Amino acid sequence: MSNTHVFRAERLVSGYDHKTIxxxxxxxxxxxxxxxxxGANGSGKxxxxxxxxxxxxxxxxxxxxxxxxxxxxxxxxxxxxxxxLPQSPVVPDGITVADLVGRGRFPHQSLFxxxxxxxxxxxxxxxxxxxxxxxxNHDIDExxxxxxxxxxxxxxxxxxxxxxxxxxxxxxxxxxxxVEILDLLTNLNRRYGTTIVMVLHDINLSARYADHIxxxxxxxxxxxxxxxxxxxxxxxKTVFDLNCVVIxxxxxxxxxxxxxxxxxxxxxxx
Amino acid sequence: xxxxxxxSNFIVKGMRQRRRRWIFVTSLLSILVVILCGGMxxxxxxxxxxxxxxxxxxxxDIAGANFAINTIRLPRMITGLFxxxxxxxxxxxxxxxxxxxxxxPNILGITSGSSVAAVFCIIVLHTSNTVVSIxxxxxxxxxxxxxxxxxxxxxFSIGRLIIIGIGMQxxxxxxxxxxxxxxxxxxxxxxxxxxxxSLNGSKMSEVLPLILIVVVFTPILLALGKQLNxxxxxxxxxxxxxxxxxxxxxxxxxxxxxxxxxxxxxxGPIAFVSFLAGPIANRLVGASASNILPAGLVxxxxxxxxxxxxxxxxxxxxxxxxITGLLGAPYLIYLLIRMNRKGEL
Lengths: 270, 345
Description:
heterodimer, A: about 30% helix, B: mainly alpha, 14 helices, about 0% strand
């Protein structure tokens, strides 16, 4: 495939204003696969994703794409290979859906070039893919949360990057829309081979949709691999400090984490 | 498949339609500016016919008309045109960059910072026009820097920036009033312009720096328009679309302060034009593309229109800033009420 890239974090240390959050992580993102970063609140999973997206400058080590540090690329060139959907992008006032999706074409346009045929095609394709064509000329304020998230993903698709990072793309959505978004991202991965890396809160959806899981705790990578191989009750105990049993998901056969709380536990099971 | 094509056409059609609307409205605004410019030349104590005005402008010496048109009305018209354009463009850039209509050079006190520097140079130091212009730019930039330093907290907050800006504006306006009260009798007429902005007594020689700055910076800013649109999507989204956000922000701020400071040094702070132009342009054109140019045209229209009203609609002649102030104040109150309801303040 032509859209393969070696995307790695090398001895990565990063954080905010002298507060180190990521304490030396080495990892390589599997090509043309869906990877999910899991971890408890404050574990550094989101900081890791943001550093890999060039939003935070590493204090030590590098994020490299095909052997070259990402901050060494001209910004627009990088933006044609590596895209990010942040957790809370800002909607400009009074913009229509198609125009917002169209902004994803920015890295492909030069200073004075107008809109090329490819630009229009990319927007149409992205909107059809995310099933939002019908809303094209609507004001984005008229859309529901789930529809809006599809618009943002369509914008990232119009950018046509080989790697797409997503920071909690399903947070704030109802379960129906969470599954819908993850299905659409899987479509994207299967149809175009797009390498997807995302942070997800829901461990069971992560286990079902991920080809590869990175488990982060206190800024360190403590386990990685296929969900079926790494996601055990011991790992959940270590990463989330939660007692649980792990059973096969009756739908997908992927690991399903059943938490044990203090209450509502059958007699004799504790 | 057929269905798909039909649907696709309608996306592109919609996008093209909005682009055509942009071109249509922008052309209309340009035509309106030309008409108002014509009005500025035709109207006055004596109303001259169009052919006399044109012949006078071509250099023909027509008794009476020559002085009224070339020495009084033409400089007034050109000053209003360029100052209005500058206020509109700079206001739009700040409002869009900070994603808040209240965040414009007028309310943030940047124009007041320029005014203080200019008034000080005129009344106390009696310097040349060039020095006044330079001082106005420096005053505007210092205001921005002080405001930035004061509003830096744990994290950047637009609300804090606006409140600090309003405070700075009140303080700087007090300094202007103080300087004017202390000034000599003969300077008061000149100094009064700094209270609300006026086109009275515009001279060709004084408007040249403004023309130069607008002509130099407008193409730069128009070229950055697309990037400004990306910045509107938030810092993170803009970065991932390939924008060097820090560099872009500094370029935009410095350019916007330059043009607004020189405009302020020429006409005084014409109230609310930088506040009104952006939202009006957005309302007229929509948000499909960069509205820097339409905002500049709206600014020019506002100033020229308000000056004509100020000169001819009432028994007394009012400076242009009084009229734009009357137009802007209700909008400011409306906006404050609306933002308060939405919890954006």
